[in-house]
Amino acid sequence: MNCEQGCSEMEEQVIMESQERLLAHDAVFLKNSQHPVDVVFTWVNNKDPVWQRKYQTASKSIDKENTGLYGADESRFEDHHELYYSVIAVKRYMPWVRKIFIVTDGQTPEFIENSEGVFIVDHEDIIDKNYLPTFNSHVIEACLHRIEGLSENFIYFNDDVFVARDLSPGHFFMPNGLASIFIARKSLSQMSSKGVATPTLGASLHSRRLLSEKYSVSIDNPLVHTYVPLKKSVYDLAWKLFEKEINSFLPNKIRGNHDLNMATFLVPWLMYIERQSAPAVDICYYFNIRSAHALTMYRKLLQKKSSKVQPHSFCANDFHSDNQTSFPFAKELEKMLFNYYKK
Question: CATH code at 59?
């Protein structure tokens, strides 16, 4: 089993082929009803001396008691040139995307100069200056809807998520306007009972509580570690409903124990509750680049691409720097990405 939606490797192609037939059937409607779709990335280069000085200054005043597990770990900010390949993947396999926005802290990736349709958005453009600088991805994600010129329908990417094959607009947004929500088979309650309180889990539990109190719903599943289709209008609704709770965690410079993960939990589930999305399938291979298992996944992905049976996406996640390995994980990752996306 390679993905978080509970299907075995033997079932993957059957599921994807069935989905493609349905999307092809919808193509007639898509011609008349398709709306612009943008992509949003968040990115940081921790090797930038200016960024390093900001981080060192801010770290002196960080509330360590509120800092979540691995919240300040260097893997949170490590750059392995993933963004370059992730943008290439979007351009190659999703050519219908209107604009690609990259949200950064005063930084510009080197390859952007020659990349048409890619726009840099500074933190200052979307986040209140009272909360800057910030090194908390939850804070940055809470403000994505403020990007100037952003379309109503957009797809949020972390830079460690990669499109692995041709994908149509209908994979993310259906002709009737519904967005896709890619629900994982995992259980938040079971994850919590194991006692490993990560900032992501804490933010999900916090978001779940707010939605439960407002709508009397019971949600126990996180989303798949892949791209997330979102609607700007539902972001606005989330701020209207939970403005006090959102503002309360924005001062957290590092991922804290009382954050909300809006882009990857609260807003997608709010879309579902508000009948703005429906469950959909995304076969995403999710693995830790610092584990020896990553080498197996690299071989598998390259073999599947050569056989034209690749998944929808994959997430090459850098878990945390304590999880060291004997092999050069960053070099192996970039080598695989180069081979996967070379023409």
Answer: 3.90.550
Q: Rg (Cα) of the chain, in Å, rounded?
A: 19
Q: How far apart are CA 170 and CA 310, in angstroms?
A: 19
Q: What angle do CA 276, 13, 92 make, to 5 degrees?
A: 70
Count structural domains, the chain.
1
Mean pLDDT for 176-192 is: 94
Using pLDDT thresholds of 50, 70 and 90, give the confidence band for residue 3.
very high
Report the distance separating Cα 1 and Cα 303, nearest Å: 16
Burial class (CB in 10 A: 0-12, 13-18, 19+), 119: middle
Alpha-carbon distance 137 to 155, whole Å? 16
Q: What is the pLDDT of residues 245-292, one digit of tens each?
A: 999 999 999 988 889 999 999 999 999 999 999 999 999 999 999 888
Q: Residue 264 corresponds to which tokens in the numbers above?
A: 């990857």
| C-beta atoms surrounding 147 within 10 Å | 19
Query: What's residue 25's pLDDT?
Result: 80
Residue 205 forms part of a structural domain: yes
Kindly report which listed range (158-172, 176-190, 192-206, 304-318) carries the lowest average pLDDT score.
192-206
Residue 306 falls within a domain, yes or no? no
Residue type, 275: R
* Domain of residue 243, residue span: 9-282
In a domain, 34, yes or no: yes
Rounded to 10 deg, the angle between the 232-249 and 199-215 helix axes is: 110
Position 27 in a domain = yes
Q: Is 195 left (phi over 0), alpha (psi -120 to 50) or beta?
A: left
